[in-house]
Amino acid sequence: MKKLLLAIIVTTGIVTMVKGQNALLDEYIRQGIKVNHELEQQRIGYQIRLSEYHEARGMYLPGISINARYSRAGGGRTIALPMRDIFEGYSLLNNFVNPGITLVTPEAFRNEEFRFLRETEHETKISLAQPLFSTQLFYNIRIHREMSRADQKALEVSTRQLVTEIRNAYFSYLQSVELCSWLQEAKQLSDEFVRVNERLLENDKVTADALYRARAENSRTDQEIAESERDKQLARTYFNYLIGQSADSPILINDSIDIIQAFSTLDEVADAACSKREELGQIDILDEVADYSVRMSSANRLPTLFAAADYGFQGEDYRFTGEYDYFLASVVLRWDLFEGFQNREKLQQARLDRKRLENSRQDVLKRIEIEATDGWYGYRSATLAMETSVIEEAAMRKAFDIIKRKYENGQSALLEYTDARTQWSQSMMNRIIKKYDYYIAYFDLLRITAVENINPYYNSTLP
């Protein structure tokens, strides 16, 4: 029975097994990812975070700068140097102590005044600063690195969700196309039914009410065609919206879908979802960030050590000679002993943040487990419904063929014929619907378990 069912599924086109991917749908997915504005905002945010990480790394490298200053000054304080007055007092004291002996005459000196600010001055130097030991810089680099990885995980989550949305929209469009095609075939059967009843009425094999009933059924089919056309246009509009095309753009069709059975039990689905989902990876990365914040706050009690060196030229005129050059080298130690308990509060905040992330992880894990359960049973239900719809449609088609021949030969009632045709039409529509419900359930299970490699789509979104 299983082999017969598999043969029915393959021959009716319910599942087309091919090697490789559906290239057309993959191209649509890449196009949708490329034009999605929400993903574009996340890509920009990720690029900013990467830039901040590289900036943080650059803070550990030496800083080199050239500084030049030229000044002109006027006014200000003056410094008096009364050399002549000093030596006059010294001369009087010398004459008193050693009469007749003169060592230095006061007339050889004069009183001087110097400006505190030199009238012209320049300084040109090259400076180098190098951090030697800084826990702030050390942990800051790691925090920015992990934050960039967290943004990357968030981008992966959004990309995977968008891939699923585009697929579902494409399957909905294919479903509407097949339903429209089938209703057109049903319309031909309905028209033929009207013509058959007209001939039977002419031959007095049926009464007029049979013809009226056939025409009413024909009008109902027209209504169903109009509704299916509306659904098809809505599906096409939404799919074109997701991939960034105009609403009336044609959509190419390729219903070859690669189905690979990856799971056989609920436990396998739950284990894959709880180990591979990007949301959990993002929370784990943020927990690393909080851990680094705790370490950084704990290490703030340690000193920081920097080295600095200057080499340049000073003077009243621009002269770059050995007479005017200078150098200065320093090692600077800074040790903050008390900052008003700021560091203690930062440490407390970091610990609370880790606790919040742990609670968040538990909530996300429970949600993923629920999704895994719902996805697994939804997939099993969709698989069974698809298989059942194939058998049901085949049986209804055979039953209708038999009743149709009997009706045309006057051996079956109108009500029996109408009921058989309606049931076959509904079973055919149900087969089409269950086919694409199965595809949607299958790829939703791939999203839940995150086993599908989305790198071919995701890498195209990175700078």
How would you characterize this protein structure?
By secondary structure, this protein is an alpha+beta fold. The protein folds into two domains: 2-66 and 134-307 and 339-461, Outer membrane efflux proteins (OEP); 74-117, no CATH class. Helix content is 65%, strand content 12%. Residues 1-20 have low confidence and may be disordered.
Gyration radius, rounded: 44 Å
The CATH superfamily label of the largest domain reads Outer membrane efflux proteins (OEP)
CATH architecture of the largest domain: Up-down Bundle
Note the total helix count: 11
Ends apart, CA distance between termini: 53 Å
What is the helix fraction of residues, given as a range? 55-70%
Give me the strand/helix succession: HHHEEHEEHHHHEEHHH
Could you say which structural class the secondary elements and strand pairing correspond to? alpha+beta
Count of structural domains: 2
Query: Which blocks of ≥5 consecutive residues have pLDDT under 50?
Result: 1-20
Give the CA-based shape: rod-shaped
